[in-house]
Amino acid sequence: MVKSTEDKALKMRKPLKRRPLKTVPMLLLITAYQLYMFSQLAVTNIKALEINYTMLIYFGVFIVAEWLYYIVMRAFAKRRNFEIELIGFFLTGIGFAAIGSAKPDGLLVQTGAFLLGLIGFSVLVWILGDSERAMKLRLPLGILALVILVANIFLGSDINGARNWIVIGNAISIQPSEFVKIIFVFVGAATLEKLQTSKNLYTFIGFSAACVGVLFILRDFGTAVIFFLTFLLIAFMRSGDVRTIALALASAGLGGWLIAMFKTTVKNRFATYRHVWDADMIDGKGFQQTRVLIGIASGGLFGLGLGKGNVRDVIFSSTDLIFGVVCEELGVITGFAVLACFMLFAVYAINNAKTSRSTFYSIAATAAAGLLLFQASINIFGVTDVIPFTGVTLPFISRGGSSMISCWGLLAFIKAGDSRTYLTTYGELKK
Amino acid sequence: MKSASNRIRIMWIFIALSLAGGVFLMFSIITQGGEWATSSRNAHLYVNGTLIGAGNITDSNGEILCATSDGKRSFHEDGEVRSALLHVVGDNHGYISSSIQNQYRTNLSGYNRIMGVWELCNFEQGSEVNLTVNAKACRVAYEALQGRKGAICVYNYKTGAVLVSVSAPTYDPENIPDDINDNEAYDGVYINRVTMGLYPPGSTFKVLTTAAAIDNLPGESDKTFYCDGAYHTSYGDVNCMGEHGDLQMKEALAKSCNTAYAEIANDVGAKSLQKTAENFGYNQKISLGKLGVYTSQIHTKKDDALELGWAGVGQSTTLVTPLLQVRIMGAIAGGGVPVEPYLVQKVTTASGFVKETAGVKKGSRSCSEETAAELKSLLRNNFEEQYGDWHFNEGLNPCGKSGTAETDPDKTPHAWFTGFLDNDEYPYAFVALVEEGGSGSEVALPVVAQVVNYLADAQ
Description:
The complex is a heterodimer of chains A (about 425) and B (about 450). Chain A has about 425 residues and is mostly helical. Chain A has one domain (about 10-425). Chain A contains 17 helices and five strands. Chain A has helices at about 1-15, 25-40, 55-75, 85-100, 105-130, 130-135, 140-155, 175-190, 200-215, 220-240, 240-260, 265-270, 285-300, 320-330, 330-355, 360-385, 400-415; strands at about 45, 50, 155-160, 160-170, 170-175. Chain A is globular, with a radius of gyration of 22 Å. Chain B has about 450 residues and is α+β, with helices and mostly antiparallel strands. Among the domains of chain B are: about 1-30; about 195-340 and about 360-459, Beta-lactamase, CATH 3.40.710. Chain B is built from 17 helices and 17 strands. The interface between A and B is large, with 54 and 41 residues.
């Protein structure tokens, strides 16, 4: 009996012995798929060998960055497993292809953001390697998040009906709420980690309410919903007896508040929902959804080929409607593969939770995976009229620099939740 | 710590929700994808509201009934053929909703579930829909109606292929008449009378009354009836066209004696009569590919000898479509089992891949083989004794029954003729209906004989 419990305890602490996916063949496969996609766009006329060199450079940089990252991490950080990054590369590559078709001008920013995102990802994974170091950042980051959001209220510019942009100079516009996502997950997981006091709990509730409140002022309904759902997820994972009641009340209040604040938006969304094909909707409020559905049906399982679709000509095709572009030009199979990738992140986070070094890591990983899954689902099911349409982007795929960096930042939490990430440095770290 | 990692499992709920959404979306794509792809908003298919790349519709000889050239959808070169086949082929405005053009537009557009509209994008042509109808024979049928309202249908009772399907009034889809909506001559012009016209069957129904008698009353064919010009019941009379005196069922059928048949119906009983009619397709949904077919109706009343008498001679509240009439004839000719009629022979994609081909599809048994054989000999006898084989080309062996259906005492009755050729080379079942045409044998028979003779000659 005693022995078996000991065994169990030992088993619990031991990192999961899972054979890592063979990275090189997988990366080769992903690269081959990316070359197949990119060549459709970069080679504009195969007979005359007309090549779009600008595009070729972006795609080239992208593929080189993937391999460089692998080589560096393998050689210097002695990493063995790259599953999370591989899925990230797969998604980002599809995004590059779809943007290359829908809005080629956006590729410059996208390439830069991808490089920054990959660097940010690596740095964040390093920071998270030492939980004490990470904990020290909790307060400053929380304050930073609120400062960013408040600054957004005053400095923000209206773009497409929401004021969630800050324009610097004339060239760079950033979307602060994207970066706040990372901090939100971090603060959420960190606040509830060690000291399970009510003070910490109320700090988190207050912090969440502040975030959602600011997003209301910024008229960014979609992101507010994502924050709310992530709040619920984090709250549930850390709640116990008294706290359960407090969190339940806070959730209900926050949810009610959210709906009340966005009353007209919600009402409008529901009026269109499941009526997009109605004669008075099809070219009006149901325009985007119907065009996406037409695109999905037209593309069939394998797609019409990049640059051959019609969804790309619809407004917001490279952002909100990118799922339609992916399905029409790369096929419904690719579309569902994208959705599956986000589920895979979540499955990863759950599985790794068993062996995570502390609940901070498992909660952060699950919250990050949850946030990505929420956002992807709200986007994919919104544009296809499965749920009411909300203007959020598809992580990793939609055009947007801030979003790209933020998505890779969130991946860092999932990566950090996987105990194998820090295997090689385990001995040096004092737990 | 442990409780937290347990609570992490809540993520499974969110994963499950996402999965459910994905399954729902996939299901929607499978069931509604065709509709979405063929929406007039799909710029792959439509330019300024016109289907640009729709495939051809062809007849059994490969004649082009409808084709797209230079972004315009045009019909057969012959105006008479265009008019004759309007209700089958359809129009460009969607007025004829139950047509090939409309109901098979997913196929014509070149859309399919696997490849989407890829074929259309690469071949600039949708799939070809090849029909079973013979355009020239349809034209003969249309002309035989001589401007009268009505319907003609001929089908091969061995394969199910519909060779002729014509409904009048009609119009030329390339020259739509200006007065189409106010001229009485165009009443019900958008309706395909073959599949959607419901008429009292009149004396043609006596075939089914006979079937019910054969099945339920073994001695009925030897019974002698006396006709003094009417069948008398306590509620009133079922009138007969003549005073036939003493006669038996065989002769009564040939002479179409109402008195005898009103009595047979009462001998058989309401329940059995209705059961037989239902076995032959009344009150049942029958189909013609994706085209809509109205359900023929019969509701016999127990305890009402007069109504049952009228039902026995095809009056009362009974209503039938011309399509069911030929299917009934097909069942008798085919030994009691009808072959389901169809219009689309095959669908071929632009790359030459045959996506759909029609095959013989048998319906459920209508009557026993013995009953079918007996009915066949009775219907053959009708020609030998009454109508005369001379209507048809020599050796075709026609079998059939005329009908004169009353609708309104002030109006001329509808003329019916329904029958089949007991001939292996020309296995045709046919029907002609001429609205307010008068006598079935005098009006409808020559019309349908003309069409069948043409088909036999043409083969």
